[in-house]
Amino acid sequence: xxxxxxxxxxxxxxxxxxxxxxxxxxxxxxxxxxxxxxxxxxxxxxxxxxxxxxxxxxxxxxxxxxxxxxxxxxxxxxxxxxxxxxxxxxxxxxxxxxxxxxxxxxxxxxxxxxxxxxxxxxxxxxxxxxxxxxxxxxxxxxxxxxxxxxxxxxxxxxxxxxxxxxxxxxxxxxxxxxxxxxxxxxxxxxxxxxxxxxxx
Length: 200
Description:
CATH architecture: 2-Layer Sandwich
CATH class: Alpha Beta
Radius of gyration: 20 Å
Distance between the termini: 91 Å
Number of helices: 4
Structural class: alpha+beta
Number of strands: 7
Largest sheet: 5 strands, mixed
Mean pLDDT: 81
Number of domains: 1
Helix content: 40-55%
CATH topology: Heat Shock Protein 90
């Protein structure tokens, strides 16, 4: 009996593992959906503080690397000398998470995602490039519920757009050769409404 039970366990192990992976994948997907809906309904008030955008980016990249590795995608980031700015760290983390996650999904197995943070005068720039084909031409990605994916809410990029514009920034996406690029620009001094008026 014990031998029979052991044999049954050995035979059923692959099926159990496969089922567990499917369940895990669905839980992750549902978690993303819930996060998107909560973020979309959340008030827009920013909690601004001084920080380093490179450090924030590095935190999200460390979080996403296991997922990228599992998808067979190389996630690349090279630290510079830091990009000091005034921003809502939680919201910018969400921007990075959404854009990097999209890049990993678009790149697919054998692809890559490259993240760069830099400063140009009084603007902080975040560029996320991937080797994927990019979204279809003519699709307004930043409108709520617009998506080229079979699954998803279509809220991810509209949330990203709202967070960036709340920072008085802008976001654009374009094809650059065989790459897709999302480029975020925000003022390093934070939104104009948050700045102290100049003294006479």
